[in-house]
Amino acid sequence: MVEIVDGLKAKLVEIDTQIELLRRQIGNLEDQSAAFVKVIRAYDPDFMTTGAALKRSRSTPRETASSRVTGLLKGKNNRHVVLDILRRSDRPTSSSEIARQFSTDVDLGEEAERLETALASRFSATLHGLQKQGLVRHAGTVDGRRHLWEISR
């Protein structure tokens, strides 16, 4: 029993170390992004940052889409959520469609659009795990790159 606890503690230290490394990398990337914006504005004063180029203020405690999704899925089994949506679907479904259906099921309203990408990403990872277990399979693609999924029968 002691060996198991020691192993879990070692894994926790490893995870915490990885998280800290990623935080440093994010900070470095944010600094680089700010430098690029500064140089671009020197040549183009009207330049406005949009989309991924928006720099989030570190002092503003805004809830990210990912943290909101984590909260929404807390206490839920992602595998069951995904399999239930696939069972109710009458055709192969993309992870984005699964995210939209989940948003409808839990009545996210206006928040649904903001969370769709984070939900789709989370459900995509779940689908790949289910595929490895033989519970779902690819059933074609949308626009030649996004997978369509269905329950393996």
Tell me what the structure shows.
- The chain is mostly helical and 153 residues long.
- The protein has two domains: 2-52; 65-151, Arc Repressor Mutant, subunit A (Orthogonal Bundle), CATH 1.10.10.10.
- The chain contains five helices and two strands; from the N terminus they run αααααββ.
- A two-stranded antiparallel sheet has the order 1-2.
- β1 (136-142) and β2 form a beta hairpin.
- The longest helix is centred in the N-terminal third of the chain and has 42 residues, at 2-43.
- It is extended, with a radius of gyration of 20 Å.
- The termini are far apart.
CATH topology of the largest domain: Arc Repressor Mutant, subunit A
Number of domains: 2
Series of secondary-structure elements, N-terminal to C-terminal = HHHHHEE
Helix content: 55-70%
Q: For the largest beta sheet, what order do the strands appear in spatially?
A: 1-2
Short description:
By secondary structure, this protein is mainly alpha-helical. Helix content is 62%, strand content 8%. It has five helices and two strands.
Helix-strand blueprint:
Blueprint: H1 2-43, H2 65-73, H3 78-88, H4 95-105, H5 111-132, E1 136-142, E2 146-151
Antiparallel strand pairs: 1-2
Helix pairs in contact: 2-5, 4-5
Key features of this structure:
about 150 residues; mainly alpha; Arc Repressor Mutant, subunit A; 2 domains; two-stranded antiparallel sheet; about 10% strand
